[in-house]
Amino acid sequence: IIIFDEECFQGRRHEFTAECCNVMDFSFETVRSMRVESGAWVGYEHAAYQGHQFILERGDYPQCNAWAGSNAYPIGRLTSFRPISCVNHRECRMSIYEKENFLGRRGEVTDDYPSLQAMGWCNNEVGSFRVHSGAFVCFQYPGYRGYQYIVECDRHCGEYKHFREFGYHSQTPQIQSIRRVQQ
Amino acid sequence: IIIFDEECFQGRRHEFTAECCNVMDFSFETVRSMRVESGAWVGYEHAAYQGHQFILERGDYPQCNAWAGSNAYPIGRLTSFRPISCVNHRECRMSIYEKENFLGRRGEVTDDYPSLQAMGWCNNEVGSFRVHSGAFVCFQYPGYRGYQYIVECDRHCGEYKHFREFGYHSQTPQIQSIRRVQQ
Questions:
Q1: pLDDT at residue B71, rounded to an integer
Q2: How far apart are alpha carbons B66 and B70 in whole angstroms?
Q3: Which pLDDT belongs to residue B76?
Q4: Where is the Beta/gamma crystallin 'Greek key' domain (chains A, B) (predicted)?
Q5: Which chain A residues are within 8 Å of B81, Cβ to Cβ?
Q6: What is the ipTM for the molecules in this complex?
């Protein structure tokens, strides 16, 4: 992953092959553009992997709205990031539950679903997740929009019992689309 | 599809089962929230299916950023919409070409690709498309972010020869992720 302190891959640059806890340690005030050369990564709004999460897959991100991807984020600030290590795109498997603590109706997710309701899920929320293998990105709105939550089999033992465990900023269990992370 | 003139499904509502060329004909100044009850639809910024395009699949869209989905759109205005009729999610097939007029390197797309470059595509652009069956959404940035272009086998005879045919507002052939439309 290569970060730049100006838009469109201009200004100072720094290349990373492993996690970065705080771009300010590399004299970056913020990241304004970025290239992901390989792998899948999670970017975070704040240092030490806190705040809003952004899935980052291979490609060019010439401005911060390229990763923020929603008006829900007034600032597409990116201060820390880490690679996602557990991904085998073909073998992602997760159970989703209507209620917290793995209660209520259960659904199996092994594919990409731009609309959970179209796949037959009961409502616009998911109460808890259990990731059996791989990693997924869960989104607030249909079509992979809105807040993003990256859930992985090798973090939290793959268990996300309550929406407050989905991510630092999660205010609601509203989840309407889910997709696998692609390496 | 049910539209509301206030956020969070409040205010006046109107239900549609077919295309709507201009919501103002139904005394809506704009759409502030929306529920898609079935099918896949395309929303447009302006009347008569002009301007920015937004893929709309089943689910709840409580505010305009739920469909605009990017800071690239300062206004998530939605003035017309129509159903996508040709979708058979399992049988979507499209050829993508490096250059306009179906020239240069060719790739086959039959699945969802959050990163075209990770799938082996040569660069961050697609010059032209030929949709053989079904419908796809093409996105400016990786991870289904940025400008959206809906391409269908039964519009334009499935042929999109030049980036200016992708959509009214298309300024560049930059396309970094593609997915099928799900009914």
A1: 47
A2: 9
A3: 73
A4: 1-38, 39-85, 92-133
A5: none
A6: 0.86
Residues of chain A with Cβ-Cβ distance to B123 below 8 Å are none
Domain end among B84, B117, B136 = B84
Structure tokens at B7: 């956020």
Q: pLDDT tens digit string along A15-51? A: 999 999 999 999 999 899 999 999 999 999 999 999 8
If asked whether residues B144 and B120 sit together in one domain, one would say yes
| Per-chain mean pLDDT for chain B | 89
Question: Which residues have C-beta within 8 Å of that of residue B166, sequence separation ≥ 6?
Answer: B129, B138, B149, B151, B160, B173
Say what the pTM is: 0.90
Averaged over successive runs of 10 residues, the pLDDT of chain B (183 residues) comes to: 96 96 94 94 93 92 83 71 79 93 95 92 92 93 91 91 79 89 79
Same domain, A67 and A135: no
Give the best residue of B9, B42, B65 to mutate against chain A (max A CB count within 10 A).
Answer: B65
Q: What is the CATH number of the domain that holds B100?
A: 2.60.20.10
What residues of chain A lie within 8 A of the CB of B64, using their CB? 71
**Residue A36, strand partner residues:** A59
Identify from B41, B81, B144 which residue to disrupt to test chain A contact, counting A C-beta atoms within 10 A and taking the largest count: B144
A70 to B73: CB separation less than 8 angstroms, yes or no: no
CB contact under 8 Å between B71 and A65, yes or no, is: yes
Q: Are residues B80 and B98 in the same domain?
A: no
> Are B13 and B72 contained in the same domain?
yes
| Counted domains in chain B | 2
Domain that holds residue A132: 93-180
Q: Which residues lie closer than 8 Å to A51 by C-beta, 6 or more apart?
A: A44, A45, A77, A79, A168, A169
Which residue, of B51, B84, B117, is where some domain finishes? Answer: B84
Which residues of chain A register pLDDT less than 70? 69-75, 86-89, 168-170
Would you tell me how many other CB atoms lie within 10 Å of the CB of residue B147? 21
Task: Let me know whether A59 and A119 are in one domain.
Answer: no
**Considering only CB atoms, which residues of chain B are within 8 Å of chain A?**
36, 55-61, 64-73, 76, 112-118, 124, 137, 140-146, 176-177, 179, 182-183
Instruction: Quote the minimal CA–CA distance from B171 to chain A in Å.
Output: 15
Instruction: For residue A143, list chain B residues with Cβ-Cβ distance below 8 A.
Output: 55-57, 67, 69, 137, 144
Phi/psi of residue B163, each to 5°? -60, -25
